[in-house]
Structures are given as structure tokens and as C-alpha cells.
């Protein structure tokens, strides 16, 4: 399957991510993580965007969003990434030096069943796989930390998942990812394809007219 067109319709869950230009670092110190996290919370509150999970990594970030109306993801991400870029350039005295991000954000539909929880776990365990933390809840810049250590206000920024979290969440989130799940999620990101069961993915492509496009030979897939 080639890369598919972007979709921005309400009442679906999305895996959203972006990277720094040239895979350079976006965040080099706590204050820079704090800037983005503060803007993320502002955007969630201002635009009433349900945020299910997130993880901020040194050179990229992942969000799991549940927009209610068509066009909400685009509006949310436009404000967040543009405001963040301006804030970073002002903070680092680098105005006029070029873009912060490698391009537009990437977003992928997620089926609302166990696939949603698989993506949530994938996002929250990202710092563990990158060896930035031994446990997801130890990484300060993600929703796993918020669930266990966050303030009431911070926890309020996380929406209830439409698929309930496992009752033994902390044990579950600390179980290693299944290799097949990692391959399939990364494959979805590389192709820009919906993530779910085979029939559901095909239905989404047909229902939302996500016409597959052929990647040019030799062009590496984005992640």
C-alpha cells in the first residue's frame, strides 16, 4: 500500500506526530519541554480537543487526539506547531533562521478497539524504547507521568479514552511492546495509512476516499 491522502474528519481517533527539521533536537532542556507542554495544554483547552495520550521526545513528539468535528485536527495542529515555532525562535534568539519542523505533521486514523490501546501504549512507552527512562511513568514529558504524578489540572487535560484503559494500567503499560504491534504501527506511520484490522483499514480508505499514491523510487518513508 502506498502513502494515502490526509483525512481530517471528526469522531475518529488519530495518531499525530512530527519531527524537527533534519532530525535535530527540538527539546534540549526542561524549559523547552515546558514551553511545548504548556502550549499543548492551552490548545487542548482553547479548542476543546480531547487528548488521550502524548509523549515528547528530544527530536519529535507523538499525540493521540479524538476530534469531534471535521477540520479540528488541522486547526489544532496549525495553531500548536506555528505558535510553538514562533515561541522557540523567540526563546532561543533564532528568529529568521528557518523552520523548526521537517514539514507538516503526520496523522493516521486509529480503529476504536484494542488498536487504540495499542497506539496509546506505543506512545507512552516511547521513552522506554529510546532508553530515556526505565518506566513510562518516570518520563516527565508524557501522559504516563501525568496519570501517576500529575496535578489535578494536568490530569484534567487528558480525556477519557473511548476504549477504557486496562484495570491494571500500571502493570500493563510496563509490559514490553509486542514486536508485531511495533511493526504494524511503524508501518502505518511510514505509509500514512489508518491503523486497525484489515477490513476496517480498507473501509476507511474507501469511505474517506483515501486514494493511495505511489512513493517515488528511492524515497525513504517518513516516521
SSE blueprint:
Layout: E1 3-4, E2 13-19, H1 30-47, E3 51-56, E4 60-65, H2 72-91, E5 106-110, H3 114-124, H4 126-129, H5 143-149, H6 152-156, H7 169-173, H8 179-191, H9 198-207, E6 212-213
Antiparallel strand pairs: 1-6, 2-4, 2-5, 3-4
Helix pairs in contact: 1-2
Briefly summarize what is shown.
By secondary structure, the chain is α+β, with helices and mostly antiparallel strands. It has helices at 30-47, 72-91, 114-124, 126-129, 143-149, 152-156, 169-173, 179-191, 198-207, and strands at residues 3-4, 13-19, 51-56, 60-65, 106-110, 212-213.
Strand order of the largest sheet: 3-4-2-5
Q: Regarding CATH, which class?
A: Alpha Beta
User: What does the average pLDDT come to?
Assistant: 87
CATH homologous superfamily name? Transposase IS200-like
Quaternary form: single chain
> Counting H and I runs of at least 4 residues, what is the number of helices?
9
Number of strands: 6
- Tell me about the largest β-sheet: 4 strands, antiparallel
Described by the principal axes of the CA atoms, the overall outline is globular
Helix proportion range: 40-55%
Distance between the termini: 16 Å
Please tell me how large the radius of gyration is. Answer: 17 Å
CATH architecture level-2 label: 2-Layer Sandwich
Domain module tally: 1
- The proportion of strand residues reads 5-15%
Structural account:
The protein is of the alpha+beta class. It has a single domain, classed as Alpha-Beta Plaits, CATH 3.30.70.1290. 42% of the residues lie in helices and 13% in strands. It is built from nine helices and six strands; from the N terminus they run E-E-H-E-E-H-E-H-H-H-H-H-H-H-E. The chain has helices at residues 30-47, 72-91, 114-124, 126-129, 143-149, 152-156, 169-173, 179-191, 198-207; strands at 3-4, 13-19, 51-56, 60-65, 106-110, 212-213. The strands form two sheets. The protein has a four-stranded antiparallel sheet, sandwiched between helices. The protein has a two-stranded antiparallel ribbon with strand order 1-6. Helix 1 (30-47) packs antiparallel against helix 2. The longest helix has 20 residues, at 72-91.
